[in-house]
Specification:
Blueprint lengths: L9 H4 L1 H9 L32 H4 L6 H19 L14 H13 L6 H8 L3 H9 L13 H14 L10 H9 L3 H8 L3 H10 L8 H9 L16 H10 L8 E7 L3 H12 L6 E5 L3 H7 L3 H10 L3 E3 L20 E7 L14 H18 L3 E12 L7 H9 L3 E8 L16 H4 L18 E8 L17
Parallel strand pairs: 1-2, 1-4, 2-3, 4-5
Antiparallel strand pairs: 5-7, 6-7
The structure holds S-adenosylmethionine (SAM).
Length: 484
Amino acid sequence: MAELEVQEEEGFAEQEEFDRLLQETAPEEAEEEAAPEVEDEEEPAEEEDPDLDDDEELGEVQEHLKDSVEGSMRLKRILQQDLDDEPGKKKRRLDGPSAEITEKVNGLLTKWGCPEDEIMRYVLEQLPLQEIENIFKSNWRPDHFSTRKTASDQLARFTAELRERSMVKGMDSDVVSTFRHRHKLTAAQEKELRELCHKDLRYVLDHYTGAEGQTLDDVISEAAGEVPDESTSGAAPTAPGVKAVSRFGRLELIDPLADCAVFGDANLTFSLRLAKHRKALGHVGRVIATTFEELDTLRERYKEIDQSIKTLEEHYAEVYHGVDCTRIAVDPRFQGMEESLGAVYYNFPHSGAITGFFDGHPIVNWRHENLMRLFFRALRSFVKPGGFVKVASNGSALGVRYSYIVGGAQENEFEHIETMPFLEWHLHRYGRSYGDRRDVYKRLAADSNESYNAQAASKDMVYCFRYRPSGEPIGKQSVLFLLR
Ligand SMILES: C[S@@+](CC[C@H](N)C(=O)[O-])C[C@H]1O[C@@H](n2cnc3c(N)ncnc32)[C@H](O)[C@@H]1O
């Protein structure tokens, strides 16, 4: 198996050099990175036990925050141990796939004529049995003669697309379409919802759970008897429902009292936009603006950063650097903020590129999926029930696939409520950045909404979620990892 050579940012930074190459590829592949190169066959890697719970660092975390950071710490420990171990050393494996999965995976690899392909094996072994069976049933097979994609790359893409067939689609999906998908409603029920006024539609969206004994018609009747509440969301009660709820989302009319946080900002222009927006609306909730990079790095990349921070502070925003959104439970700056956030934003998440690999290649892609899973898991301790999370991303991205965002949210009880086109979002006009060294020499223009290289701006979306914890334990966060 190819050794994972972590050179964060370099591959992403070198995208310029691959532009010509990318332009020759299919449009939906345009956000990918360097050409895939798979070399250096090695002894297949085996996984460490992800359930070991002897992490000293975790012992120091407050009890009620452990769950929101345990997955991140487990992942770090596994990867660290892998780096410390001699490559190829026989590793203990307690969490391997079941015998049934191994048998099916062997069967598929043999059928495709590549029983020794360890990366394809890795892709398949990550899947639940049902998905492996679905692949069996399909007639799919890799093209071993492709000059652009390795067989494992093709397989990873196929399995993701197969899963996405049963999910809500990645492009715009309004509140009713998303609700219909979640509750498996009929076309007639959808039509009924679309005819409701703002007050009634909001009531139904908030109160219908699909629980046994509850019918949609009953909830619609209850809604009619409700009086509009006094809060912001009670405005325009008789307006057409879908239009009014959609406008609320697009105009970012969040709770004026709610604290909000931005993760993964880079040049802070999004946070600035949000702080100004909230000030103009007279909001008193805090704006917490964070970057993953430290201030020194930001100063090298964005000459105006000190001024941006000053302006943010003049707007009473708090600015923190070096914030890892998957580990806020162990970040002292977030101490005491449990269940306080009413809105959270992370635009265009990306866990950094690795030289020589397309973003969707299975050797590197698991990092993007983990980022989303661990981000939402971390938020469980900090977002208040009913709070909103918005993640902007390109609907056809092959790195952070939309299904990683929606899937990571759903498995952590963040209900997907809508996908809106990014360009319809009141906050979309800010200076997008690559978040890596390219920002030193290539700035994306805010006034013309410049999008990332070769990413179709019309496919940029904002995935919107609402936190609805059931109060029941949801189990440990599963993480993906690839060992040497
Ligand atoms: C493509 S850039 C987007 C930057 C900015 N949000 C924007 O829209 O212009 C992705 C950003 O995610 C940040 N990032 C990567 N891993 C992160 C993590 N674990 N926590 C927070 N941010 C992270 C990177 O540092 C980078 O700034």
